[in-house]
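Continuing the batch. This is chain 6 of the set; chains 1 through 5 are on the previous pages. Same settings as before, nothing changed between runs. Recording input and output for traceability.
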Amino acid sequence: MSVGYVLPLVFVCLAQQNSCKTSSNKQSGKEVSQTGAKQTGKALPEGTWGGVHISMEVTAKGAAIEYDCAHGTISEPLRVDNDGRFQAKGTHVREHGGPIRNEETPVSHPASYSGKVNDKTITLTVTLTDSSETIGTFTLTQGSEGQLFKCR
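Output for chain 6:
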């Protein structure tokens, strides 16, 4: 979804104050994303999608993502438009090698997951929304476990 579509939605949410909730629900049979925008189109097929340095498990409610030294979540249903494109909100957490200390709290960053589906392949771009840092662009294939080299 382009900025031209998102900005008007933000202004509508602000104008109506609490009318746009942060939880996903259904209105008129269409999914409503965390941003309040109706997501139309077909659902991304559920199951495992993987590639080099990434594995993603898609469910009806979103996705869990594993990278070599990070993990993330997509917290809303993944729906593709007529061009095969999608955009969703979630989180991204960096990991590190070695033991995790008892008092250590992982730092979670809000993230935007955007991509394009072409048959059984997804091109996925992950961007941290609090810093505009692009984590990377990955190619995933439906049914593939992915090739991960976890930090140890």
